[in-house]
Amino acid sequence: MHCMSIVKFSEVAHRANTKEDRFNTDKIYYAGGEHIESEELIIHDKGLIKGSTIGPMFYCGFKSGQILFVTRNPHLKKCGVAEFDGICSEKTFVIETKDRNVLLQEYLALVMQTDDFWNYCEENKSGGVNFFLNWSTLADYEFSLPPLPEQKALADKLWAAYRLKESYKKLLAATDEMVRAQFVEMFGTLEKPKTKVRKLLDVAVSSGQYGSNTSAIDYVKQTPRYIRITDINEDGTLNDDIKSAETYDDKYTLEINDILFARTGATVGKTYLHEYGDAIYAGYLIKYKLKENDIRPKFLKAFTHSGTYYNWVSKTQKIGAQPNISATQYDSMPVIVPSIEQQDEYIAIYNQSEQSKAELRKAIEAIDKVIKSLINKT
User: Fold this and answer.
1) How far apart are CA 58 and CA 5, in angstroms?
2) How confident is the model at residue 108 (pLDDT cuts 50, 70, 90)?
3) For the residues of 104-135, what is the DSSP string, one character each?
4) 74, 115, 131 from 120: Cα distances, Å
5) Are 300 and 261 within 8 A, CB to CB?
6) Is the dihedral of CA 177, 180, 185, 191 positive or negative?
7) What is the pTM assigned to this prediction?
8) Rounded to whole angstroms, how far apart are CA atoms 160 and 371?
């Protein structure tokens, strides 16, 4: 092991200041804060400049391989390597090494993901309501810089782990796509069904009310979980932020195989099938109890993750200050309802895909731990 030197950020890295006119540029894409995921090394998401509503602050050009660091709200830890050319806001710093013979760009990206780096950003942020980090503050950040061979060895290990994680994420997406394609193959779509289509109220009973509007508090042992609209993930699972309700009312109780539909906001259309544990549900969610002689709970869950369901949500939601689907619209929502035998056949396929996805998520979590450990060795 060679001796490491302590360097200031500005001694080995700089802010690339390439100006671009968003109305007259050969760049196709832009990257906003919404496109940069927290604690992710690579930026994949992007928007099209043409037809966008980006403002005059989007005048900074960047190239593939450069690092984009979102200076607003540094606690969100938004910093990654762009895999495309584009423009970004002046509030997003475009960072690159000054000399690849001193500091590898691939290693710099790791430095900017360490706990030490983010702690420094948090401790030295400026502002009140909207916190931010100045370049002068970032320039003074100090870190240990090993010799090039050690930088390369660590960077190679970490980026290999990250690429493996990326491949697993692609497998997750491919599994979802396969299951959706199988649904269409077996049952068609709402526009061109191959089997019966019924209204949701034909196969389920509505609670007739939205959920509780009581406040969420830190989880109290042996109390029902308080399921809020923000707890439901895109895949219908719940996040790990378990809360209890400040007050409890039996009329908001969830029973096994009750299904919830989100009726408003960016999450409109998301669903959650309750399969275990005591719980009550919060406002902006509508509960339905299924008539299980007509439809299997797992089949309705699978239907609400199909492409044809998402198309219905997209066409039905009212766009205003908040997207919205009313209880009346959900009541009359068309549902593909094949025979119980066909439902069971599809559920077997769906369950297998869910098991495969669970194993992939475990693998991703394990890789994340390895990545985190490697990053914090920098």
Assistant:
1) 36
2) very high
3) -HHHHHHHTTSHHHHHHHHHT-B-SSS-B--H
4) 10, 8, 14
5) no
6) negative
7) 0.76
8) 10
